[in-house]
Amino acid sequence: xxxKNIFDNEDILLIKKEYDLLxxxxxxxDKEGDRDMIERAYKVASEAHWNMRRKSGEPYIIHPIVVAxxxxxxxxxxxxAITAALLHDVVEDTDATLEDIEKEFGSKIASLxxxxxxxSGTYNNRxxxxxxxxxxxxxxxxxxxxxxxxxxxxxxLHNMRTLDSMPEHKKMKIAGETIYLYAPLAHRLGLYVIKSxxxxxxxxxxxxxxxxxxxxxxxSTEKKNxxxxxxxxxxxxxxxxxxxxxxxxxxxxxxxxxIWKKMQTKGVPFEEIYDILAVRIIxxxxxxxxxxxxxxxxxxxxxxxxxxxxxxxxxxxxxxKPNGYEALHLTVMGPEGKWVEVQIRxxxxxxxxxxxxxxxxxxxxxxxxxxxxxxxxxxxxVMLDNPLDDPVEFIDEFKMSxxxxxxxxxxxxxYLINLxxxxxxxxxxxxxxxxxxxxxxxxxxxxxxxxxxxxLQSGYQVEIITSDIAKPEKGxxxxxxxxxxxxAISGALKTEIKDRLQKGKEILEKRLNEIGVxxxxxxxxxxxxxxxxxxxxxxxxxxxxxxIDLSDLKKIVKQNPGSKIMKYWELKLTGSKxxxxxxxxxxxxxxxxxxxxxVPYLLRESVxxxxxxxEIAKCCNPIPGDEVMGYISPDESIIIHKPKCPVAxxxxxxxxxxxxxxxxTIHKMVSFLARITISGIDRIGLTNDxxxxxxxxxxxxxxxxxxxxxxRIFEGVIDLYVHHxxxxxxxxxxxxxxxxxxxxxxxxxxxxx
Length: 753
Ligand code: MN
Description:
The protein has five domains: 9-209, Hypothetical protein af1432; 213-360, 2-Layer Sandwich (Beta Polymerase, domain 2), CATH 3.30.460; 492-558; 585-664, no CATH class; 672-746, ACT domain (Alpha-Beta Plaits), CATH 3.30.70.260. Helix content is 49%, strand content 15%. The protein contains 29 helices and 20 strands. The strands form six sheets. The chain has a five-stranded mixed β-sheet. Strands 12-14-13-15 form a four-stranded mixed β-sheet. The chain starts with 8 loop residues before the first helix and ends in a 6-residue tail after the last strand. Residues 63, 88-89, 155 line the site of manganese (II) ion (MN).
C-alpha cells in the first residue's frame, strides 16, 4: 500500500467521532460485559482495517462502525449483534480467521460472522451465479439466528447511503440487487423505515433523473400540504385531548419510490398521486382498556369529525400482518374535499412498525407461541432443505415468498391451513401431505367438486379427493404456487421417468432375447430411426408407456439399413439449424451502443468491442435516447435492456457481475422498432389523419398499422422504425393532439411479428 493510505490526524479524529456516536448512544446494552465486548471488537476491527480505505477515501473502519450503529439504533439489536457488525468484514477482507474470532469472542459471534462472510471464489463464466450462492448461504443461517440477516441489511443500507463513490456498473448492480431482494426482505421483517430508505436510494441510482424530478415536486408541494394537514389535525387534537388521550399526530411524507411506483402501475402523473395526504396518530394507551378497543375509539372520534370512505378501512389490529405490523388505517374526506389516510397505532405498535418485529425476536428458550414470522422462516427452511438445482431460480423462489401474502383455508375438520396468495387446491393437497398431493384427482371446495387447479381464497373449506392409481403429471407444475408442491411434483416425476425407462428397457431386452438378438449398438442404429425417436431413453420411455408396442420388432431388426437412417439425421440437423436462426443478431460494426469505460478489466477482455454482437432485449425494446444497460449473455453477446425492465432487475440481482454500462452511439443509418398503441373515439377520416401525421414525420418509418373499431371505440397498434426516443415522443405528441384520440402509449414489451 502506498504512503497516502497512512492515516493522518484528520482521519483519526473522524474515526473517534464516529465511534463516540456509537458508544454514547448505546441502546439496550446494559448487561455486564456488554460494553467491554463491544470495545474489544472495535479494537480488533480497527487494527485489522488499519490504514485501509474505502472507495470514497474515508478510513475503512468507519463502515463497520456505522453498520454497528444502524444495527443498534435503527434496528434495535443488542451487544452481540453490535460486536458482529463491527467485525463483519474482518474475516473477508483481512488476514484474521474465523478461528481467531472464535477464540476471542466465542462460538456464537463466530457463527454470526461466518454467516456474514461471502463464499470466495473466482468468477466463473459457465457456473451462473456466485452471487445467488452467497445469498443462499446467508439465508441458511435464518432459522438459527435471524440477526445475520438483520446485520446484512444494515450493511447494505450503509453501502447504499455511500454508493456515490462506486463505479457506474457497480452502482447498477448494487441498486438492482437492493430493490429486488433487500428492500422486500426488510419489508418482510417489518423494517418499514429501512425498507423505504432502501427503495428511495435504489430509485436514486437506477433512475437519477426521475428521482430528482419527484424530489423537486415533493419539495414544491410540501408547504401547501403541511398547511392542509394542520387544518385537518386541529379538530382531532381538540377532541382526543378532551377524551384524555396522550398522543402524537404528524403528517407522513410519502417516499419518492412509492410515488414513482404508483405512477408506473397506474400510469398517472405525479399530481394525481400526491393528492392523497397521510396522517399518523400514535397514542399512549390508557390503563385498563385493551389497546385494540382504544384504536377503535379513536377511529370513531375521527369519523364523527370527517366522513369515512367505507371501502378503505384496514384492520391490522385484530389480525396483525404476517411480519407483525399492527395498526388501524382509515381514509376520510378532509378539508377542501381531499382524501386523507389516517393510521392509528399505540407507541408499542409504532415501535414494531419502525424497528421491525424481528428486533424483538425471541431467542431460543423463551418462545411462547409461534407467530407469523416464525412460520415464514420455517417455510424458508423448507425451501433451503429442498434446493432447486439452479441457484438463480432459488432466488426467484425466495423473492416470491417475500411477496406472497397469506390466505387461510380450512380442512373439512376445521383445521386452519396457511398458504401463500395464489395457491391452488393442489398446493393445499401437498401442504397437507406429499402423498395426498401425489394421489389427488380433484377437490371439493365449499362442498362443490372443482378441478385441482382452482385458485383458493381465504375462508374456503377444501377437501381433497384421492385415488390410488393417480400420479403427478408434468402439467401440474403450472398449477402450483408453493415450493413445497413444486419440489414434490418434480421429485415424483423424476422417479416416474426412471421407473418407466427401467420398465421399457426390460421389455425391449426380453423381446430381443426372444428373437435371439443381443442389444448392441447395431440394433439401436436400426431401432431409433424406425421408431422415429432420437435416443435410447426416448425409445425405452415410449416402450415403457406402451406407445411403441414392438409388434414389428423382428422385421426392423432383420432389415438392412436404408432410407430411414437418412431421415433420422435429417431430423437432427434441421432441429439445430432452427435454433440458430431464431437469434437475430447485429454485428459490432453497426453497433449503436458502446461499452462504458469503467468495465472491469476481466470483463473487458471477454467483451472486446470489435468481436461482440449485441441484441435489443425483447422484454423492454429500448431505443436510442432511453436509459440502457448491458448484460453479457452466456454466448457472450451483449443484450441491451432498460434498467427498469423487470428482466434486467432480476439479472442485476442474480448475475450482477455480467452487467456492464453501455451508452448509445447514435448512427443515423440504424433504426429501431418501437410500438405504440392508440385509442379514442372513432370518426370519419380519423385513420387517415393518423397515417398522415406519421408519414410527415421524417425520422419515423411506419412498418405496420392495425386499427380495430368496436362500438365507436377504436384501438390501434402501430409498429414504427425510429432512430431516437426523441422522434418517438415527438410523434406521440402529434398524434395525441389529433381530434378523437384519447390516449397514445409506447409499448415496452412486444415481439416482432
Ligand atoms: Mn460491509
